[in-house]
Amino acid sequence: MSKVLLVIDMQNDFIDGSLGTKEAVSIVPKVVEKIKVAKAEGTDIIFTKDTHSANYLTTMEGKKLPVEHCIKPSHGWEIREELLPYVESVVEKGTFGSIDLPELVSNYDTIELVGLCTDICVISNALLLKANFPEKEFIVDSTCCAGVTKDSHKNALEAMKMCHIDVI
């Protein structure tokens, strides 16, 4: 059985930068440990990077969330330093879910997601992938995710459960 671990948007701006939270900071060591275990088990790992350009504030997302973040090639756009030794494959994506991920994960039986933010990019990618592959096993590790708020994190986890994604 083949498995892939998707590490969603573990970037500086979402951890302790312009959109960071103490909950996001707190999951970094847990995500590092999760990746170490996954690598030891032979699990493939793919990172995503939320990627925006200098004109972000003029985009639809920028108008609804007028906080510049993950502007390529800023420090905030970079993956957190503690995670860099484990980065082998990276998918740059724009708003929310990656339309490139389905092709990259099509050969895996199990798809696990961790990262930021539970209530935006984690849920978007999980549901996009579940729609593409309704018969694959999907897992979200709630201890390795953080949302914009504690309540929105919990709500996103419940929504994913309702869509037959296993939340551990």
Put the structure in a nutshell.
The protein has 168 residues and is of the alpha/beta class. The chain contains 6 helices and 6 strands, in the order E-H-H-E-H-E-H-E-H-E-H-E.
Question: How would you summarize the topology of this molecule?
Answer:
Blueprint: E1 3-8, H1 12-15, H2 22-40, E2 44-50, H3 60-64, E3 90-93, H4 101-105, E4 110-116, H5 118-132, E5 137-146, H6 150-162, E6 166-167
Parallel strand pairs: 1-2, 1-4, 2-3, 4-5, 5-6
Q: What's the story with the biggest beta sheet?
A: 6 strands, parallel
Number of domains: 1
| Sequence stretches where pLDDT stays below 50 over 5 or more residues | none
Query: Strand arrangement, largest sheet?
Result: 3-2-1-4-5-6
Question: What's the overall average pLDDT, rounded?
Answer: 97
Q: What would you say this structure looks like, in words?
A:
With 168 residues, the protein is α/β, with parallel strands linked by helices. The chain has one domain: Rossmann fold. 36% of the residues lie in helices and 21% in strands. It has six helices and six strands; from the N terminus they run βααβαβαβαβαβ. Strands 3-2-1-4-5-6 form a six-stranded parallel β-sheet. The longest helix is centred in the N-terminal third of the chain and has 19 residues, at 22-40. The protein is globular. The protein starts with a strand and ends with a strand. The model has no long low-confidence stretch (mean pLDDT 97). This is nicotinamidase. Residues 4-163 form the Isochorismatase-like domain. Pathway: Cofactor biosynthesis; nicotinate biosynthesis; nicotinate from nicotinamide: step 1/1. Its EC number is 3.5.1.19. Keywords: Hydrolase, Metal-binding, Pyridine nucleotide biosynthesis.
